[in-house]
Amino acid sequence: MKNNLYNYILTIADNSLILAQRLGELCGHGPTLETDIALTNISLDLLGQTRSYYQYAAKISGENKTEDDIAFLRIEREYKNCLLVEQPNTHFGFTIARQYLFDVYHLMLMEKLQQSPDETLAAIAKKGIKEVSYHKRFSSDWVKRLGDGTVESKEKMQEAIDALWRFTDELFFMTDAEKEMAKEGIGIDVSEFKSTYYEEVSEVLKEATLAVPESKYFTKGGKEGIHSEHMGYLLADLQYMQRTYPNMQW
Amino acid sequence: MSEREIKNLEEIFEARIARDEKIEPKDWMPEKYRQTHIRQMSQHAHSEIIGMLPEGNWITRAPSLRRKAALLAKVQDEAGHGLYLYSACETLGISRDELYEQLHSGKAKYSSIFNYPTITWADMGAIGWLVDGAAIINQVPLCNTSYGPYARAMVRVCKEESFHQRQGYEIMLTLCRGTEEQKAMAQDALNRWWWPSLMMLGPTDDQSVHTEQSMKWKLKRKSNDELRQQFIDQTAPQADVLGITIPDPDLKWNEETGHYDFGEIDWDEFWQVVKGHGPCNKERMKARVDAWENGEWVRDAAMAHAEKNEKRKIAKAS
């Protein structure tokens, strides 16, 4: 039971950490000062959520772990984030598409999770909802601005949506830990809101004058630790200090 | 306006400054006052923006989640400072796009310190402690400067800066209380950032071209050399607490003057960096120009979308 809960927390928290890391790369390089501030802000929110989850996971692990052990000492195969969030920034359209496709899912998850009988998870979700609804407002506004902006921005936004679409199905794939936790009533059965997700996303894409991708070919694996080739580099950066100087206080 | 009328306005203006009254955007001001403020405030804003890069360099590699979050928050504050300062500058009748143009063309300067590379984690500590420390010494007097929008922006900037400085010092303290490797990392960072931090206070008084005028307008209350002395007096004992050594063999407490004596600054290096030939000048400018150019299609899209929305609104109303 404890082990399932531990793994379940990671499936949620790893998404936040890896996406925060990706957004952190953009600092100082955004198209406007305002978007720079917004993206760092989102990164910081996600990192805050990560820390709450990891602290909780560390506590229930019963192994004297800290949040930093969980973040910095797991290898790629142990990370449970979905493939979507580890995708590179490529260009601003990709950053926005990745953010939007994740935010819609994330908010739906938080809304369910705040009702979990697990008080800590419910409390983290409750706090997270305010942040995630802000993220979704930001990313959906930008999907519309870029989609229904210039000819060039429309092309770029469509390119990003088309490229990242294949990672959306994984959001609703359930690992064993998730299934177990859902069965116990603590975790969320994410497959339940899959169709609502696609309906909402399709509506926004249409409003943004973009085409909803028709491809039914999807990729998954991240949630079970089988990541894209991007992940190793991302972790090399993330973990460099702790790996080089183990067992120190910073 | 006749010369006599201008002279009259100038006298009224000088009298207001002498009475410590704030000058506001719609008030009459001498053209030189306007230009000097545009120069200094935009330079300050540019420094905040360029300053995001050396620290942003360590966001993905910060050694703990707590430090990563603090660093992200700090860089976000800096972007916010840039934003207030550009807005304050715009009250003087120049647009942010023009200011960016000046930065990207090299016409406008930014603080020389951000042309140094951040090569270890300890640099995040040294920057907070020394660079933000020197910035505060420069900026606190600006909370009372004569131009209202600048003074008000500085009140908020200074609050956050002193928080960042404490945070930086705390990073240094943690390293110095840590392992030998960590302490060596802290010492190395102090060695590399000490002299550049002293240079942040500007050229010596006899070399400083703007000082006299800036003093008159209360843009400056103390000279560069006085501020530098204040910074050294305040910082040297902090290095003692850390147990690391300031890289200046001539640094010594002087009982007679009640100040620290210190060694000669390498002004050739200072001018080299200011003129664009420091270790990272090219990289910093390239990063900014690239961000601007690569972001053009995004800004164009935002404009086009806003125009479309406006048209839709009008069509709907009629």
Automatic annotation (TrEMBL), chain A:
EC main group: oxidoreductase
Gene3D superfamilies recorded: 1.20.1260.10
One GO molecular-function entry: phenylacetyl-CoA 1,2-epoxidase activity
Keyword annotations from UniProtKB, A to Z: Oxidoreductase
InterPro entries linked to this entry: Aromatic_CoA_ox/epox, Ferritin-like, Ferritin-like_SF, PaaA_PaaC, PaaC
UniProt keyword annotation of Kinase present: no
E.C. no: 1.14.13.149
Pfam families attached to this UniProt entry: PaaA_PaaC (PF05138)
Keyword Ligase: no
Protein name: Phenylacetate-CoA oxygenase subunit PaaC
Species, as recorded: Aequorivita echinoideorum
UniProt lineage: Bacteria, Pseudomonadati, Bacteroidota, Flavobacteriia, Flavobacteriales
From TrEMBL, chain B:
Known EC number: 1.14.13.149
Enzyme class: oxidoreductase
Record-linked InterPro entries: Aromatic_CoA_ox/epox (IPR052703), Ferritin-like (IPR012347), Ferritin-like_SF (IPR009078), PaaA (IPR011881), PaaA_PaaC (IPR007814)
Keywords, sorted A to Z: Oxidoreductase
Highest taxon of the lineage: Bacteria
Pfam families (alphabetical): PaaA_PaaC
Record-level Gene Ontology MF annotations: phenylacetyl-CoA 1,2-epoxidase activity
Protein name: 1,2-phenylacetyl-CoA epoxidase subunit A
Annotated source species: Aequorivita echinoideorum
Gene for this chain: paaA
